[in-house]
Specification:
It contains six helices and eight strands. With 148 residues, it is an alpha+beta fold.
């Protein structure tokens, strides 16, 4: 079975709700999490990692909103994606794609991400992903990436 990366349209209102569930600080080498009181109880009741996993599973079961990209194309361009501001699980600021985990590509970063895709696309390998990014941008959605 080939390794794939999943990319999903991610509504910004849901994204904003998830952003409230984030890493507060790192103290004494221990990561402390907090939840904003405004976050819905269903998200408060689970850890950040579990919430992300639930979202990933939802989208994997709704393929109309998703696109799978072969690992070969992602790994060959992984360093060029580092030009793009993103978030890792728990809304930790990041640059590029979290190869093994979940990455949020915010709406504001989609033009830059699309540009990187176009610049590094050999034989239009990212054509469908560029289209998905354009659709997300037009709809004011983020993109959720699930690594291998």
């Amino acid at each position: 079975m080939a390794l794939v990366h999943d990319f999903f349209l991610f509504p910004m209102d849901l994204s904003n709700q998830m952003r409230k569930y984030q890493v507060a600080y790192v103290a004494d080498g221990k990561m402390e999490r907090y939840t904003n009181p405004e976050v819905a109880p269903r998200i408060d009741s689970v850890s950040s990692h579990t919430a992300w996993s639930l979202l990933r599973d939802f989208y994997r079961n709704n393929k109309a909103l998703a696109l799978m990209v072969d690992d070969e194309y992602v790994i060959n361009n992984i360093m060029t994606f580092r030009k793009v501001e993103t978030y890792c699980e728990g809304y930790i600021p990041f640059y590029g794609l979290n190869y093994y985990g979940i990455t949020l590509i915010p709406w504001e970063s989609l033009p830059q991400f699309t540009s990187v895709l176009r610049e590094n696309s050999t034989h239009n390998c990212f054509g469908e992903l560029v289209s998905l990014c354009q659709k997300a941008y037009d709809m004011k959605h983020d993109i959720l990436h699930c690594g291998i």
